[in-house]
Amino acid sequence: MAGVILKIMTNIALIGCTGSIGRQAADVVRRYPDRFRFTALACGKRAGELIALCREFRPLLAYCEAPFDPPAGVKAVKDKTELFAGCDVALIAAGGFTGLAYTLAAIEAGKKIALANKESLVCGGELVMRAAKEKGVEIVPVDSEHSAIFQCLSYRCDAAFEKLVLTASGGPFLHKSKEELAHVTVRDALHHPTWKMGPKITVDSATLLNKGFEVIEAKWLYGAPLEKIGTVVHPESIVHSLVYFSDGAALAQLGYPDMRVPIQLALTYPERLPCAPMLDLTQIGTLSFLPFPEDKFPCFTLAIDAARAGGTMPAVLNAAGEIAVQAFLAGCITFSAIADTIQDALGAFARENAESYDQLAETDARARAHAKAFIYGSSAS
Ligand SMILES: NC(=O)c1ccc[n+]([C@@H]2O[C@H](COP(=O)([O-])OP(=O)(O)OC[C@H]3O[C@@H](n4cnc5c(N)ncnc54)[C@H](OP(=O)(O)O)[C@@H]3O)[C@@H](O)[C@H]2O)c1
């Protein structure tokens, strides 16, 4: 009897379709049109790009923060929560705090989450994990380090381990002294040695705030106390992270740095489909590992402090970081002033328990206003 090939179509709502992760998700869908379909596309300001993507992928629904005129057959929704109606998976790839509202809305709709937006867990980890548990919703990591851990734990977020070790490229300033760091430019900061990403996360990779965010993300995803999450510098970005087990064994996941791999895997696991070239170890030759340079990069320490404090403090950390990086990219502050801005905000806010999205949104708004006043003077809001 001839075998029957069953192709299962995965319907995806992609939030942040015009960004770095969004565009790479579009590559994955383009490559496998029989496996993946976008049912909804959403973005912030780039309406023209959204319209082009709507023409190409013909989703049912689209959303843009800016006014836009969708092509025939695509319905523009006004309410974000409507975006998840026809999907199997919500791929949350919007940048920043804005991602949290989408993540919570997708969980409320009972949809599986492929999570690229790390700020959802940094700012709202407690709420997100609680809501996902209540709704029986699965959260699958897209961030490469967390995807590596997910793979090493046999695709289980609740598996036993002794320690998680996140690898860090170290960013473009790994070998700079503290004095040199005071004079680096926006152009230098945007020149990441191994990954091509959006501007915010690229600057966060240069300050190592991003690695602090990833520690918080790992804490929530894998239920790990902070003491069980380590970091190591690995400049080649080939080993994407490691898991240590009680018998002393360690498992790692390796691959060329290419976000399409974890994006695709979050949509297909446990199945794997061709995606990137196989590693050629002899061509790579040597892999190096160095101690994490925490004392040179205060943003990492600030992130860990905020994680220890918990409650609303990681939301303050993130909000001040978003404002500081915007100001740095606009040429208004120095690289070192990013950490100063975050430190000032963390010192000015008292910890509260994180009870609701509205409370976090209010904290986020206040922390942004505070950081703006710190940078531009007290008249800023
Ligand atoms: N890039 C990477 O390799 C990478 C790796 C791991 C994790 N991540 C995480 O993935 C997320 C996205 O990163 P990225 O590098 O792709 O950022 P990005 O290139 O700056 O893209 C951000 C995306 O978010 C969209 N957006 C902004 N406001 C929105 C809103 N209100 N509603 C819907 N969409 C909105 C933007 O739309 P417009 O451009 O139209 O305004 C854009 O599509 C971040 O949380 C980042 O930390 C990224």
Q: Taking Cα atoms only, what radius of gyration do you get, to the nearest Å? A: 20 Å
Rounded mean pLDDT score:
96
Order of helices and strands: EHEHEEEHEHEHEHHHHEEEHHHHHH
CATH hierarchy, class of one domain: Alpha Beta
CATH superfamily of one domain: NAD(P)-binding Rossmann-like Domain
Shape: globular
Features:
381 residues; alpha/beta; 44% helix; binds NADP nicotinamide-adenine-dinucleotide phosphate
Report on this model:
This protein is α/β, with parallel strands linked by helices and 381 residues long. The protein has 15 helices and eleven strands. The chain has helices spanning 20-31, 47-57, 98-108, 119-135, 144-152, 178-181, 186-189, 199-207, 209-222, 260-268, 281-284, 298-309, 313-329, 336-348, 357-376; strands at 10-15, 36-43, 61-64, 75-76, 89-92, 112-115, 139-141, 163-168, 229-233, 239-244, 250-254. The radius of gyration is 20 Å and the shape is globular. The model has no long low-confidence stretch (mean pLDDT 96). NADP nicotinamide-adenine-dinucleotide phosphate (NAP) binds next to helix 1, strand 2, helix 3 and helix 8.
List the helices and strands and how they pair.
Elements: E1 10-15, H1 20-31, E2 36-43, H2 47-57, E3 61-64, E4 75-76, E5 89-92, H3 98-108, E6 112-115, H4 119-135, E7 139-141, H5 144-152, E8 163-168, H6 178-181, H7 186-189, H8 199-207, H9 209-222, E9 229-233, E10 239-244, E11 250-254, H10 260-268, H11 281-284, H12 298-309, H13 313-329, H14 336-348, H15 357-376
Parallel strand pairs: 1-2, 1-5, 2-3, 3-4, 5-6, 6-7, 8-9
Antiparallel strand pairs: 8-10, 10-11
Helix pairs in contact: 3-4, 4-9, 4-13, 8-13, 9-12, 12-13, 12-14, 13-14, 13-15, 14-15
